[in-house]
Amino acid sequence: MANLILKCAPQKAFMIYAPNHAHWQMATALMGSQRLGDLLEARNVNDVVFGHLHKRQAAQTIANTTYYHQPMGYGLRRLNEWDGSDWFEEWRKTLVWLEV
Prior knowledge:
Blueprint: E1 2-5, H1 22-31, H2 34-42, E2 45-50, E3 60-62, E4 65-69, H3 87-94
Parallel strand pairs: 1-2, 2-4
Antiparallel strand pairs: 3-4
């Protein structure tokens, strides 16, 4: 088994689709790819840590791969990306520890 760290979203389940909003259609093309997720599963990747979408989510297992969506974000109040205002504390919350 292998572990992988990515920027892009490796599964369709993590991407935002808004067909009525041209801006989101363009942005979704840059967020990631389901084909990447399929490749990771075919290669028996056990854990994937990624960011890119700015909102942290609980770990999610799809097939035999566990995905940790732990972005840092920019701390923009309008996007509610951070719980507090301390950069170091928010960074600490994004850390994922995996046994190798």
